[in-house]
Amino acid sequence: SESDAPFLKQAIEEKTFVISETRTSIYNTQYVAIFIPIFDAYGDVRAVLDATVDISSLWDIVAATSQDGLTSLYITDVTGTVLVASSIVDETQAVEIREIYNTLTNAETAQQYENTFGNTVTGSLVRLSSPPWSVIAEVNLESLVEKTQRNILILTAFSLVFLMMIFYTVTVFRSQLMLP
Fold it and tell me: What is the model's pLDDT at position 101?
């Protein structure tokens, strides 16, 4: 299409893959077009492969990373608009995530803040170069610390049981060695 012409031209001239800006299909789903040059034996561009990627397919990947409920993950465009989220995002939350995006964009390190669900989280933003998106990852440290402490208690209990079993085994073995 005509809207693809600049990306197609860029892929040919720069001899590299190019990803379009985020677009909306007639079915109201967001997608990007990817243009990959195909070279001949002399390094000249002979064709350009054009692929369309439905952004909603990224949802499965994002959702899989946050099944434990301790993390939230968002993929945003350059304005902070949520393209993919690990949970359903309503309009109010979308505005809040855009504000979080703006805060994290200017931060050099991870920041602690209240997320859209009212939980205190530590969040960080990573920019992708191509496509020009950002990934915001949030971790609920309170819940993570609680789970870690519970797991340490369980490990400690198992360790004590294991040590008691070793002590019993050594005692029985020693008594057997002392018999005439």
Answer: 92
Confidence of residue 116 (pLDDT cuts 50, 70, 90): confident
For residue 40, which amino acid is it?
D
92 close to 99: Cβ distance less than 8 angstroms: no
Residue 17 CB-density burial (10 A; 0-12 exposed, 13-18 middle, 19+ buried): middle
Interatomic CA distance for residues 104 and 97, integer angstroms: 10
DSSP string, 61-95: HHHHHTTTSSEEEEEE-TT--EEEESS---HHHHH
Sequence letter at residue 64: A
Sequence letter at residue 126: V
Determine the Cα angle at 117 with ends 114 and 118, to 5°: 40
In total, the chain counts a number of residues equal to 180
d(CA 85, CA 77): 12
Q: Strand, coil or helix: what is 169?
A: helix
